[in-house]
Design a protein that fits this description.
Layout (H helix, E strand, L loop, with lengths): L2 E8 L3 E8 L6 E8 L4 H18 L5 E9 L2 E2 L4 E3 L10 E2 H9 L3 E5 H15 L6 E6 L3 E7 L2 E2 L36 H7 L8 H10 L3 H25 L3 E5 L7 H14 L4 H5 L2 H4 E3 L6 H8 L18
Parallel strand pairs: 1-4, 4-8, 9-12, 12-13
Antiparallel strand pairs: 1-2, 2-3, 5-6, 6-7, 9-10, 10-11
Bound molecules: zinc ion.
C-alpha cells in the first residue's frame, strides 16, 4: 500500500491539487484542477473537493499522510491566512485547522510563492543540483521565495521576498502599498497592464509584446522597461543571498523565449560591464521553470514533511 501527500495550489481562479508519493515528492501521481469559489467558505469547500477527487483518482487503500496548501496572502506559523484579497478573504481564516479537522490528517499552509520555491528546489534536486534557490515569481505582482541550503526561508515578519515593493523610481507612480515607484509597477503583469492598457482578446502581456514586435514605439518602451527591471530584480536577489540558482516562474513567464531570450542577452551584456559584474554570473545562475511544472502544488505537498536533518551525514547525496 502506498502513501501520499496532497499539495494544493490555491489561486484566485483555480485550485490545482496533486498527490505525490511520500518517497517521490517530485512526481505527481494524480492531478485535479477546479475553479475556485472565493470567500472563506468557498475556498475551504473548493480545497476539500479537490482532495476528495484526488483520493478517488488513487488506487483503493492508498494512505493519505498529510495535506499542504500554498495560497496567495500572509500566512502565520499557525497556518492562519490573512489579507488574501484575490480570494475575497479579508478576515483571518484558520485554513490549516479547517483542512486538518475535515480530513483528519495533519495539514500545513504556506504562502504560494514560498510553496513554489520549495517546488523549484525539488525540481533542481531532480536535475542533480543543490537545493539553493531564489524563485522569482513574475505574475500579476512580483515576489520571491527562498530555499537556501535546503531550507525554506519563512521570514520573521511575513515579508520574505516582497521585493516587488522596493521603491526604485523616486518620482514614480503611487503603488497599492502606499509607496511610490515600486519595482512591481514595472516588472510584473500589473506593471505591463498599467503602462499598456489593453482590453482585447488574449492575455495582456502577449498583446504588448506583439505590439512591440510590430514596431509600436510605446510598446517597445514598456517591454524594454519591464526587461530592465526584471534584470534588476535578478541582480537584487543575487547580491542579497547569492543563491546557486534563480528560477523564474509566474504568469508573465508563459511568454517563454520572448522574455527569456532578451532577458538573458541583457544579463550577458551586463556581465561585460566590469569584472565584478561578470562575477555575479547572472546569466549562468538564472533558469526558467518549465511552464507545466506544478511547483507550488508539489512544494505545498513536500512542505508537509518534516525538514531533512542538517547533520553532515544527513546531507543528501547531491552535496558530494
Ligand atoms: Zn508597492
Amino acid at each position: 500500500m502506498s502513501a501520499v501527500r496532497i499539495g494544493l495550489d490555491i489561486g484566485g481562479t483555480k485550485v490545482h491539487g496533486i498527490a505525490a508519493d511520500v518517497d517521490r515528492p517530485d512526481e505527481a501521481l494524480a492531478q485535479v484542477r477546479t475553479p475556485t469559489v472565493v470567500g472563506p467558505a468557498g475556498v475551504v469547500a473548493t480545497a476539500l473537493e479537490v482532495v476528495e477527487r484526488l483520493i478517488d483518482a488513487l488506487p483503493r487503500g492508498t494512505e493519505l499522510v498529510a495535506v499542504g496548501a500554498g495560497i496567495p496572502g500572509a500566512v502565520d506559523d499557525d497556518g492562519v491566512l490573512s489579507n488574501a484579497v484575490n480570494l475575497a478573504i479579508t478576515e483571518p481564516l484558520d485554513l490549516r485547522g479547517a483542512l486538518a479537522r475535515a480530513l483528519a490528517v495533519p495539514a500545513t499552509v504556506n504562502n504560494d510563492v514560498n510553496a513554489a520555491a520549495r517546488g523549484a528546489a525539488t525540481w533542481l534536486r531532480s536535475r542533480g543540483e543543490a537545493e539553493d534557490v531564489a524563485l522569482l515569481s513574475v505574475g500579476t505582482g512580483l515576489a520571491a521565495g527562498f530555499v537556501l541550503d535546503g531550507r525554506m526561508r519563512r521570514g520573521a515578519y511575513g515579508l520574505v521576498g516582497e521585493i516587488g515593493h522596493l521603491a526604485v523610481v523616486a518620482d514614480g507612480p503611487r503603488c497599492s502599498c502606499g509607496q511610490h515607484g515600486c519595482l512591481e509597477l514595472y516588472a510584473s503583469g500589473r506593471g505591463l497592464a498599467r503602462q499598456w492598457p489593453y482590453d482585447g482578446p488574449g492575455p495582456q502581456p502577449v498583446a504588448v509584446f506583439d505590439a512591440a514586435d510590430a514596431g509600436d514605439q510605446q510598446a517597445v518602451a514598456v517591454r524594454d522597461t519591464f526587461l530592465h527591471w526584471l534584470a534588476e530584480a535578478i541582480r537584487i536577489l543575487t547580491l542579497s543571498v547569492d543563491p546557486a540558482r534563480i528560477v523564474l516562474t509566474g504568469g508573465v513567464m508563459r511568454l517563454g523565449s520572448r522574455v527569456v531570450d532578451p532577458l538573458f542577452a541583457q544579463l550577458g551584456c551586463d556581465a561585460s560591464a566590469s569584472a565584478f559584474a561578470a562575477s555575479m554570473r547572472l546569466r549562468e545562475r538564472t533558469l526558467a521553470l518549465p511552464t507545466d511544472y506544478p511547483a507550488a502544488a508539489l512544494g505545498a505537498a513536500e512542505l508537509t514533511a518534516p525538514p531533512a536533518p542538517r547533520t553532515p551525514e544527513g546531507d543528501p547525496a547531491w552535496r558530494s
